Each structure stands twice: as C-alpha cells, then as structure tokens.
Amino acid sequence: MLSPLAATLLVLRLPDVGVAGYWQLLELVESPQQLLSQPIQSWRSLLNPAAADMLARFNSDPEGSDVGKKLAAELAYIESQPGLHCLTYDNPFYPRLLREIPRPPPLLYVRGDPTCLSLPQLAIVGSRNPSGGGSENAERFAHYLAERGFAITSGLALGIDAAAHRGALRAGGKTIAVMGTGIDLIYPSRHRQLAQEIVDSGGALVSEFPLGTSSHASNFPQRNRIISGLSGGTLVVEAAVQSGSLITASYALQHDREVFAIPGSIHNPLARGCHQLIRQGATLVETAQDIVDQLAGLLSYKRQEVKSARAAQPELFTEPAVGDEGPQLGEDERYLLQALGYDPLPVDLLAERTGLEVGNLSAQLIGLEIKGLIQQVGACYQRL
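Below the sequence we write its predicted structure tokens.
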C-alpha cells in the first residue's frame, strides 16, 4: 500500500481532480489509500473517465505508467532535498488555523522549519509598486510585530511583501513566504537571496503547487487563501481598489479573521483599497501596537474572537484614466516621485529614501515643481 504522502500525491495528480475534487472524494471515502484500494468499477463511479483510466493504468503497472513515473520522480526529489518537508492534512505539523478554512490544501510543501507554521502569525500584504512611505510602513510594522512574537506571513512578491519579509528578518524574527509557484521555483527570481535568508533565519517557504509549477495569474488568488488561512489577521498596507491584496483581505473575512488597514492620503490611489476596507469594517490602524492590542490572544495560543464577514458586496471603483500626454520625466524624476509618495516630506528624508546627492535632489525637485507635479509646503514637498 502507498504511504499517505504518495497516495495524496497520486490522487492530486489525476486529471481534473485538484483541491476541490480531492475534498469531494474525501466526503465519499475515508482516505486516499482507501480510494486506491477500491475495485476498478468503483473508480468509474467516483472519478471522471480520464482519471479512472489513468488510475487503472497505474494499478496494472505502477512503475511503467506515466503517472507512476511522475510520482516516483516527485518522491525521489522530495527525498533528496534536505530541509524540504511535505505535510499532508493529517500530519501533526499541519497548521491548525489552516485546517479551519474551507477546502484547505491537502498537501503543503515546506522548505525550512515546518513548526513555524503553527506560530501566531500576522499577514502583511499590499501593492507590488508601493510608494516610499508604504514600503517603510510595511517594514516598520513587520519589524515591530516580529519583535513582539508574531511570525510575519506574506507572498514573496515585489513591493510590500518583500518589505514585510525584510522587516521581520531585520528584527531577528520569523517570516513565512507563501509562494504562487512550485516550491522548487522562486518567483520573482530576484528574490532568491531573500528566500534563502527566510529559510536560514528559521522561517519557511510554503507552496501547495506541484513541483515545476511556474507563475500563472490564476495561482495567486489560490495562494492568497493560504496566506490568510495561516494568519490570525491580515494587514493591508497599500492597495488599489482592484488588487490581489483585497482578495487576501476578502479571504480573511470569509475565514473569520481580523482585517487591518493603514489609511493614507486621499490623493494616493494606492490608499483607496485600504479606505474601502475600512468603510466595510476593517480596523483602521495607525501604529503596530494597535494590532498587538487586538491580537494579543494569539500570542498565548488562544483563539481570537473576531467579527463575522460582512454580507455587503465591495463597492466598485474605477481608477482614473491616465492620458498618453503629460510631462516627460527623466529616470531620476520618476524615481523621486515614487519615493515622495503622497504625503509631505522634508528634503533630508527624501535624500535618505532616494540616496540622491542633495544638489541633484534639489534640482530634480525644482524641475518637478515647474512641471506642476509637486508643490512646496513649508519646509516639505508634496505630490499633486
């Protein structure tokens, strides 16, 4: 008889089964092993024709069938990788909070320490193209929360995700990256070093996708439900109205977990998603201590009582159209606008954020002011 891991892998690799199909099957049989022990006639009634045929070929020739070869290769890879763990749903290391969501991943690939998945966690998510202030908020909140015992969970993406991971690492805390690819592929590739630092620091990389799965847009909403499911709460730092971060927040509400949002300038399009969440009942936070106060029970491994998800549908907003015509900006000017964000900042903080020499920075500011993109407010500059 196949091991629980091998049986789970085999069922998940059958055509058109997937996570939803797996749990539908488990409503009819007690375990994957029990399914595989059924006679061929039973498979025909439980599975679609392609899956039943594939399973029949495996049953008659486990080592020679196509699915048998793929299963053997996957198991060999898992066995050969130090620090790689595969957690089936009944594994004692499978995180308790994740078990509570509808149709949780039947199998988790974990590179790093699997025990950290059961730590009290706070998810931090947001834009892949945040303002300078948004990145700073994500890193500082993550640093503060990690110092106080929370593991920081995010998606290893550019922008807010990366800032959150780095903030936790800088604090000497644990951080967990949930991936939208197979565990053997790092996306984006520029985050390979960050991924290694996460593992080396005692954190973990997590994926439910088969080995070799590359990045597809459809993978990321599926990944987002795991980010929410692992965490006692989700903090949205900066997000447009139509943003994957709001999908994570929506899952958090469905999972009866807390949702937090940092408000921003009314002129910042990346604050609109946060403002929408606040209107729908998310907790407005101004400091990381606000989150610690509300989720303190998690640090004692107690269940946190949370409000039920609101039934109201999210409001629909349309991003303002951006015309083709406009001031032509140089590379330094575009970089400076990104760093400035939408709140007034003094020149010394802008110099710290951008690394630009003060003379060059002043020249760029004057140019942007002449083009009508910023204005001086006292000793600060503000984006228009």
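Residues 301-325 have pLDDT under 50 and may be disordered.
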